[in-house]
Amino acid sequence: MKTNLQKILSISGESGLFTFVSQAKNGIIAESVQTKKRSAFGVNARVTSLSDVSIYTDDMDEISLKEVFKKMHAHLGEKPAPSHKSDKKVIVDFFNEAIPNYDRDRFYISHMKKVLQWYNIISEYLSFDFLEPEDKEEKKEEETKKEA
To answer: 123 pLDDT band (50/70/90 cuts)?
Structure first.
């Protein structure tokens, strides 16, 4: 099954990743990717969709997290990424190899640790076969045909 990064969420103050389930009266309902436990998060929760995350590169541009994950996956194959708890040198060396053009002044070690943690969660529980915008259009067309 394809992974839709628009529905994969990082919630400030919570560990791991969540899948958007539905809109609630005063916030959202999301399910933990790891435990499958559902929780409600209020309107004050800082929720970020992974599709909205990008990292800075040296050429004054940004690269989407989806593209970062694809590059990491191409570099690693089926092996897991280094743990987010690894030594700082191990983490920096990994990003120097996998994403050599990342901006060393604006992509901090704390960001690298989050990306590694997210990568390993997706590797274990989801898929690196990401839902692309054209896939969404095809799905809408199929649903329209079924309704007709």
So the answer is: very high
Class of domain 53-125: mainly alpha
From residue 23, how far is each of 48, 95, 99 by CA, in Å?
A: 15, 36, 35
CB–CB of 6/133 below 8 Å? no
What span, in angstroms and rounded, lies between the C-alpha atoms of 66 and 78? Answer: 17
133 Cβ partners below 8 Å, 6+ apart?
none
What phi and psi, each to the nearest 5 degrees, are found at residue 70? -65, -45
Overall fold of domain 1-51: SH3 type barrels. (2.30.30)
The rounded Cα 26 to chain-centroid distance in angstroms is: 25
For residue 117, give the 3-state DSSP assignment. helix
- Sequence spans of domains, the chain: 1-51, 53-125
pLDDT digits (tens, 9 = 90+) for 32-53: 999 999 999 999 999 999 999 9
